Amino acid sequence: MFIYPFIYLFIFLLSACTTLDQEARTTLTPTTIATNKTNEVVAPKLIKKVQVVPAKIQKIALFLPNPKNRFGILGDAIKKGFIAAADANQSKVKITRHYVKPNNVSAIYKIVVKQGADFVVGPLLKITINSLIKNTTKLPVPVLALNHLDSQPKVSNLYQFALSATDEAKAVAQLVKLHHRAIALYPNTDWGKDVFNAFTKEWKTGQIVSTIPYYSYNNYVTYISKSLRKQKNIDMIFLVAHPNKAYQIVPILKRKFKNVAIYSTSHIYRGKLTKKKDYKLNKVIFIDMPWILTKNLPFKIKRYKRLYAFGMDAYLLASKFKQGKWQGKTGHLFIDKQGVIHRNQLTALQFVKGEPQLLNQ
């Protein structure tokens, strides 16, 4: 019934799951927000340890959920972006596609290694990634998992790439350096807390004077309204919310705090123009990937724009892994000491007449 939530809920759904071309190269010159450079640990030392990564990748195995799985729609969009990037680069790399789940991923991994795969991209779901690495300390062929695990396993040759909401929260913190007193609203879930914590850890110039963790399944509108009654003397609001919640929350915030700036992550925007609804979000500033404003895309790509770009960047990482830094469609990418791929230099946008535009355009 609702297709678009699969896009903007990408990270949320995957985190919650415990059992769960030239066109591509945008010509935009977006406002970019760089996260703290001290956090950017590029990987010469890490990559040096990975002796099994060949200088030239010749065969990539792509591990994704079965199309019949409820996450198949996500995997299919990623696959389309991955293949499109390979085609745009006139790649001669052989790409094999495999549908994996927790009870067969280890067996399929052994098969593709035996068949000569140089690099494995995927799995997508955390439960499947954990099944793959459960009984090993080293993977003979590098694996670029398409998610961030909750804890960092000590497994050699495992790398992690995701559309991380925490990276976006850090970018918001960099954007709001001139603000000093804020309230924060976020879902009272592990995911919501992670996003909030990432923001507060990065924001060094101000203080959170009040937090409002809300539950999505109760009368959150009433709860938030009551929580705001005694709030005053703030100069910004950090809101973590998906569109359907934001349509209810933002008007409350605007009535209570006139002319106070509201900031959010990409999750507040569906990724597709819906002016009749998004006008409620006017003046809200949010962080998103540079590619989000790319226009004139085929309809099938428009529906899954972020995941399509994610798939393109997954190909970029796999095919040019030893670079250590990459300029991707989802942002500037770099790898840390734990082998986790992060994004920075994201795009600052603002809703104007129900449509996202580059900030200060």
What topology does this entry show?
Elements: H1 5-8, H2 10-16, E1 32-33, H3 44-49, E2 59-64, H4 72-88, E3 94-99, H5 105-114, E4 119-121, H6 126-133, E5 138-145, E6 156-161, H7 165-175, E7 181-187, H8 190-202, E8 207-214, H9 220-227, E9 236-239, H10 243-256, E10 261-264, H11 275-278, E11 285-288, H12 299-303, H13 305-319, E12 325-327, E13 332-335, E14 340-344, E15 346-352, E16 355-358
Parallel strand pairs: 2-3, 2-4, 4-5, 5-6, 6-14, 7-8, 7-9, 9-10, 10-11
Antiparallel strand pairs: 1-15, 11-15, 12-13, 13-14, 15-16
Helix pairs in contact: 4-13, 7-8
In summary, what is this structure?
This protein is of the alpha/beta class and 361 residues long. It has helices spanning 5-8, 10-16, 44-49, 72-88, 105-114, 126-133, 165-175, 190-202, 220-227, 243-256, 275-278, 299-303, 305-319, and strands at residues 32-33, 59-64, 94-99, 119-121, 138-145, 156-161, 181-187, 207-214, 236-239, 261-264, 285-288, 325-327, 332-335, 340-344, 346-352, 355-358.
List the main descriptive attributes of the protein structure presented here.
8-stranded mixed sheet, 361 residues, Rossmann fold, elongated, disordered N terminus
Mind explaining what this structure looks like?
The chain is α/β, with parallel strands linked by helices. The protein has 2 domains: 5-163 and 298-343, Rossmann fold; 166-288, Rossmann fold. It has 13 helices and 16 strands. The chain has helices at 5-8, 10-16, 44-49, 72-88, 105-114, 126-133, 165-175, 190-202, 220-227, 243-256, 275-278, 299-303, 305-319, and strands at 32-33, 59-64, 94-99, 119-121, 138-145, 156-161, 181-187, 207-214, 236-239, 261-264, 285-288, 325-327, 332-335, 340-344, 346-352, 355-358. Strands 1, 7, 8, 9, 10, 11, 15 and 16 form an 8-stranded mixed beta sheet that branches. Helix 4 (72-88) crosses helix 13 and helix 7 (165-175) runs parallel beside helix 8 (190-202). The protein is elongated, with a radius of gyration of 20 Å. The two termini are 35 Å apart. Mean pLDDT is 86; it is low at 1-51.
